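Annex B, item 7. Sequence and structure tokens for protein A, then protein B.
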Amino acid sequence: MAGWSDENMAIKQDEIKGRGKQIKGKVREEVGKLTGDRTEQLEGTIELVKGKGQKEIGAIKRKAKE
């Protein structure tokens, strides 16, 4: 992208990857609920929380850079 440095792309990737983890975690969480697999449900919740954290780190980096 024009005007985007490698550092800006890395920050944006944190946000994108974080959102992807959130989606994957939510899917795993729901599959666990539907199948009664509490381990899958818990692992999904953990991945969801990790994704939120990664997304927030990217947002904080982006705001600090502005």
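Protein B:
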Amino acid sequence: MTEMLIASIALIIFAFIIYSTYAAQSSKYAQKEKAYELKQGHMEKSMDKIRSEISLIEQEVAETEKKLNDLNNTTDEP
């Protein structure tokens, strides 16, 4: 009877250790997944900012080229 009790306690302890290990690994995976999602969101936001800055620079370049062409055309006319 004592051996059964000891075996039962050992089995419960062993099951608890296995469950704790599984829960820890599952938690780490969930943390990594959440961190990846946050990082991906941050990168998308950064890329959107960079795209908008590039678009603004392209617009400025186009406007400057147009002004320069207009100046060249007005100086060539007389």
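Comment on protein B: The two ends are 116 Å apart (CA to CA).
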